[in-house]
Amino acid sequence: MNKTNNIRVRIAPSPTGFFHIGTARTALFNWLFARKHGGAFIVRIEDTDRERSKAEFEVDITESLEWLGLVPDEFYRQSERTEIYKKYLEKLLKERKAFYCAHSIEELEQESERQKKAGQVPCHLCDDRDARITEGIIRFKNNETDAIIIGDLIRGEIRFDPRLIGDFALARNLEEPLYNFANTVDDREMDMSHVIRGEDHISNTPKQILVGRALGFTQPRWTHVPLLLGSDRSKLSKRHGALAVREYRAQGYLPEAMLNFVALLGWHPPAGKRGEREREVFSRDELIELFSLERIQKAGAIAEMQKLDWFNREYLKKLSDKEFIDRAAPFISSPEGKRVPKELLPIFKKRITRLSDVDQEIRSIINLSDYEAGVLLKGDREGAHVCMIIDTILNILSRIDPQKFSGVTAREALDPLVKKEGIGSVLWPLRASLSGKEVSIGPFELVDILEKDEVVRRLIVARNKL
Ligand code: GLU
User: How far apart are CA 193 and CA 15, in angstroms?
Assistant: First the structure.
């Protein structure tokens, strides 16, 4: 543990792409660990690669984190810390633990090709490490021969042969540090107690350990979380569906559903009381309470995106009507959708997967598509009888004052007919006439959405089909 004995963890995304599900999971695990132990969750934008780093990606990272409610306690940007890295680079150069390398890119490429052909792991072994050159790439002088051992909290001991790492690059020059160097300096400068990150970084860890040792740093506790896999067990990629969190947000997935979904990618809470074993829906507070690094699995974690749909439906059902309206309203974009009073939106709460589906549902109701007469005849009902019922419904509903026309007044007016003929005999033809579908929202919900003239028109169309 570090000198203050406090838990301090971070995510260190590079703003070279949109914030994706894997980063969301790493962020969540770090955030949960910090919250559980009263520690700090830090976000550090690793934008030392000036060409590939883009402001729009940084904005996407911060907005996505905010959307998920993973708000950092501290925020840093590496591009603003050049002086700090420079100081440490100068120290390493002065102590001859780093050196300027005179090899050209072509020479390095040739070396790497040669090594690959010989079946070796490509790494640069510099032959003029002591030359008094003062420009070129700054490299780490790797004299280590003893195995480097990572004590990983999830994977246990991982051993690396330092000779396979070579004299790796630390910086393009004093002003342009590279990933492994800046990352190591910052983890110490920012007093990280743990580094919790994706397993794809394991090969960087021995380099960071060597840099840390050369600078006399204490090491953080290393924790590498398993890779995310698609349903076919290959590394999760675009092929398996959208990966950018913003795409899910834009379709109307709820942040709480997304959090719950990613929490269970490679982590599981301890089995609860009997009957709780299968439980999957956990609130943010429950996740904080149950979370521990030890329960992160070693094996790759399969991300089934359909499971996110399931979580979203579960969380949508839990929303109060008011909350649902507040969340769904921004997703209503069509002219048809905008005509529907907002108070009616909860009609769709239990029927949709994403908030954007509401607009689609409304459009499919308002733009009635043609349908077969059979839709009107439920089970063994005779056409003539259904025709008579629709006529009676028409008669009754036509008498309601258009100003007062609603699901409630229609239900009241039709009550005697329902009592006489039976619920199904009246409500099926009414619902089928208004929706043109075998499955839809309820008849009086449809009445609420459609204006009186339209209801009457659809009942006439239905009757004429029989
Ligand atoms: N900048 C690295 C990345 O984007 C961060 C790695 C780390 O967490 O140490 O993957």
Answer: 24
